[in-house]
Design brief:
binds iron/sulfur cluster, globular, High-Potential Iron-Sulfur Protein, Chain A
Length: 105
Amino acid sequence: MSTTNRRTFIMQVVAAGSAVVASRAMAQTAAKLEETDPQAVALGYKHDTKKVDAKKFPKHEVAQKCSNCQLYQAKANEAWGPCQLFPGKQVATNGWCSAWVKKVG
Ligand code: SF4
């Protein structure tokens, strides 16, 4: 690897690392999703899976929650985290909405 290529490579690695740090920082500072948010209301989102309307969502089970949903992107043991369905917002690890999909693996 030439000096120029090495320098370019290092700059790309540093830039990529900065982007990762920035996106994590944004995720940590993102606002918490409100249950009154129109999209949250439309999907029946609740911060607590135990408070989901059983009549409206008869297939819901208490064991279903954001932490075991395929769309949840937080690390283990975090109380709130990003969801692919609500960009820029954080959902509760014990939350639930009707788009819940069992996490694979
Ligand atoms: Fe939670 Fe999954 Fe609904 Fe997102 S899609 S709010 S992670 S249940």
